[in-house]
Amino acid sequence: RIQRRNIQYRRDIDYFAPKLIAIFESLVPADEEIAKQKQLINSLNKLISREWPHARLHLYGSCANSFGVSNSDIDVCLSIDEKELGKAEILLKLADILEAGNLQNVQALTRARVPIVKMMDPETGLSCDICINNLLAVVNTKLLKDYAMIDPRLRQLAFIVKHWAKSRRVNETYQGTLSSYAYVIMCIHFLQNRRPAILPCLQAMEATYVVRVDNIDCAFFDDVDKLHAFGARNRESISRLLWAFFHYWAYQHDYTADVVSIRTGTLISKHSKDWTRRIGNDRHLICIEDPFETSHDLGRVVDKFTIKILREEFERAANILQYDPNPTVTLFEPY
Ligand code: ATP
Ligand code: MG
What we know:
By secondary structure, the protein is an alpha+beta fold. 39% of the residues lie in helices and 14% in strands.
């Protein structure tokens, strides 16, 4: 492996920032799409409250964390306090309610790793997956959304990284690469660690938002309107940041020792988390700590074959951004 630690930015690095911003803008969903999603949730809420007056639907995932590209499926969580029925029974009953409400392609997947009901709304054309009581996902959705409001470069960086990951087929957890959620966490960590920093560590600040979910205390500063100028002292362009992001993951990250942690805002050691050995299916070849479920390594899906693919893709991206005459095209060439 060639070490390229002290490589300089190419001279025209800032020239392709506008092209990257144009790519970002082409990926952002239109306001009408967001409105349609809200409309669907409202009508589903009405349908469900007839049967379960205290149940509520929440949007989570990319349609609610502000990192969603247009036309993605929407992720919905039903929060329900139902002691009589098990999860599978709730899902089956939910499927009946949706079918009676004229939603299409209703399917209850009760045996999936995360059991869900899938459906399509003929009125808006939107497809959605509904899970039950996955409230931690609702809270981590809010954390990501709050980070996105602090500095616009986070959304730009994360959209471009997600777009790269989808084009290069390294955004497929069932094939041993990373989830979109993991990539966004990597971007937040990276911007927390620029100097001057572009993002703060919200979980290390005075907590203004506190909830307890599944016996986990989730607490962070969420008055992000007060943080609008946080990253202003750092003037790096999106092209520099993208280059530095891939350069970090290609040549600088210490895969044997370090864990990315947005909870603390720094790197922490694998040793301190006892993530140095393979335990069960957790291989810990690339370690990304979940901000709330801290025993959860978002990189655990990566195995000894896919880590190699992933690191080669990071190197490819870093080299394209360093040397390629047309980086904003070559970077996203399909795998
Ligand atoms: P995409 O645009 O690719 O659909 P997404 O933001 O919806 O992106 P997913 O990886 O599909 O990302 O995850 C949906 C949501 O589920 C995340 O926003 C997060 O709240 C939650 N989630 C996903 N993976 C994990 C995980 N490993 N641990 C905890 N929560 C997760
Ligand atoms: Mg999703």
